[in-house]
Amino acid sequence: MVRKIFILIFFILLIYSSCGKKDSIESLFCEAENLEADILKSVNTISQCRANYEKILLDAPESEFAPIACYKLGKLNEIFGHYDEALDYYRKLVSYYPENPVSADGLFNIAQINQLHLDDIEEAITAYDQLITFYPNSEKIFQALLQMGQLSCQQDEWEQAIEYFEQIVVKYPEDKICDDLYFRMADILQFEIEEETKAIQMYQHLVENYPDSPWIKYAEERIAELNTRGNKNEN
Amino acid sequence: MKIKFMVYIILVLGFIVLSCKEKPRGDEFSWSPDGKKLAMVNHNSEELLVADVEKDYLGDITPIDTCAKIFAPRWSSDGQFLLFSKVKGKSLEILVYSISESSTTHIDKFSIPSDDYLKKYTFPSWSPEENRILYLARTNQNRTHIYSIEANGKSKKLLLDIDCKEIYPMWSPDGQLIAYSMFKADGDKNNGLWKMKNGGSNNKLIYKAYRINQLQWSPDGTRLAVVKENKTKTDLKYGLIIIDADGNEKEIITWEKSEIIELDWSPDGQKIAYVQKKDDLKNIWMVDITSLKRVKLTFDNVEDYFGWGAPDQLFFTIKYPKDLVKLREAEKEKREALEDILGVINENLLISQDNFKPVKLGKNIYSFQYCLQNNSAAYFKPFSKIDLLSSDIYFAEIKLSDESIAYPSRTKSEYIAAADEHFLNQRYPSALNCLNKYWDVNFNASDFRSKFDVDSAIFKMKTESDSSQMNWLLEEGTGEGALLKTILIMRRMGQIENSNWMFSQFKKLIEYYLALDKKDQKNGHGLLSWAIIRTYGKYHEFDSGIQDLEELHVLGEQDSLFRINIYFAQALLALVDKQYQLGIEKVKQSVKFLPDKFFDDLEKDDFTGFLALNVFDLYAEYEPMFVSILQELVQRFEEDEDIIELLELLGDHYKKTGRPEKAFDVYQAAVTKQFDEYKIWGNIFELQTK
User: B356, A70: Cβ pair inside 8 Å?
Assistant: First the structure.
């Protein structure tokens, strides 16, 4: 009897669980349908949003809203992976509204699209360079300098990389990345450019000014190693 | 068929006129060294002029010479002489105008092989220190001579006599040396950069190259920047190189696969700007001479390069981004129709790279010349004349140091262009002053009315057989829009009595015009109404335009075509001003005046011209009502043999607005009426394929 009751419970559970599965598939389906509706709704919203920005740009190209509209149209295209269209809008923005601060953001995005999506490093470097030169006070400068430093490293342009990293530490001495950059510059000076005296100075600067940095230990080791090697060479 | 044909003819003529519009060359302006005089070539009056320029006004304008082709006016370093060249037929004459003596001295004259010869470096130039001129002359034996000569035409000295066609000389900044590039033939051992003393001695090849196509001395004269071409079997490369005055290579700034067409040191010698051209796309780069760091300033959109102003200021124009937004065809056409009526010109933008800060300075600028000494600038702007069939012009504008604007106008078109600019910038008295000169009257004097009195002009014509005043009034009153513009300016200035009187004369003129034989109504009603539309449109006087035109209907009671055109003019002004309901009413009223048989007169082509080219495009917001008007017309002229034009118009509209099925039906109805309409068949096939 007990066994029969267990078997009955087992079947009830089985049926219940299969019902649950059905429920969950149904709910999955429902959820998908709702999401699809949301997508459709947002597609309409996006179209409307795009149309509004376009209208501003067309009807009032000299208004204060036009440069922002141009930037947003670039951004919308970028989000949806229409990189050529996005670049087109960003370039128009920078050409037509050069005085507007949003042009700096446009240039940064041109560089990022070329670097990350189109793999056109030369164009990316040109755009970062333009941003750094034309908009030295932009909020994007930090990122642009960092990217230029890293791209210079990738292309074995070590002196140039140091120039960019140095601009960052001079301009943003309080930034949390500065100790990393000092270590990186010292590392480049030691191993790539092979200017050991300058490398020691750079490690030293890191040790003296960023006592909480995780790089301190390694910097001290390297100073010691470079000094020892220096002494040996002198002898 | 003839309707579309006519519309096309008008468009084609317009296109030909536009394509004939010759852009300024870039060498028309020259500021004197102290900035107090401006020499300028006026292509409209075909004159060389010298204007006195003060901080806040443009003084006397003195005509120096007259010729259709005057090139490269250049001031001597002391500002006492103006050097220029005239080209007549195949000969080039070099002349010098003396400011103190107000006289011109002939320097030399020689034949030129072709217009290709007329390049920047082939025109004579002044020695930087003395008043000596350096110039090239080609002999009949295909040899090139380099001469130097004094400003008074004396002490002519032959510096070089060589069998080479491609040679460009340049003074060093202290005037002691002359560098020149020479290209004889592929692989010639004499190709490269040469240098000699200013008297012609010590002539030697200092830098060998396949070809040097640009050279510029640094401002301190110690270095030269050159663009060197390197040619291999498969490749042609362009190198921007800095060499010292002895020809030793100092820096290689860049090697490019595309041509470098301009090269320019900054006045402090710290930077070099250069223009790179690939296919039809131009870019400007700036190089820091110390760090050799290059920055690209543009995005494949450079139109003209104007060079440095202050040491850190570079001027150039970029093409106007016509498609700020990528428009669908229908929207594009609407935009074009609007811009046509409003007289909007969007060609380029003037950019100043001020210490690496890009600044947008203006729109539609050509031959820009900045003067550091007086902080003024001279340039040309394009002006679209109202009459579709007349040519467009460029007119000079001077921006003075106090930011005020002056116009050194010499021709009637230039006076009108200047009046428009003043009006659109609310400088109404200045606008009226320009019209004083245009009409050669003084609107502030009491007797100005005699010149515009239509009754007395008609009387004179009848009694004295003198039709000059009437013809003049007719031409100006019904053509270029000057009469209406005068009325509108007077209204803005509050001269209501004068403007009302002038408008009454305008109406009398129209009455007289309508009474003329058809063949004497020069350009027909269509072009007359266009002149009216474009005048009110450009001056943004929509309401007053619609109201003024209402008064013209009475004059044309017997002339239904005139009324159709005037209703259309009102309709377009209303539509441009977004008064859509009023616009529709005016279109409907015009339709009422259509004669029973629609297509039997060529002049009626204007009707579909209006519909096809303008109303359709401006009507987008009220499109269903427009379509209903068109459908009504199709029904009304169903039996007419040229109904096909309306059907095509309707089909095109459905196609443009994304209704292919409807378009297909209408096109089919059209080819059923007339089978050999290949263009419509083309549309049908296109829709079937889709």
Answer: no
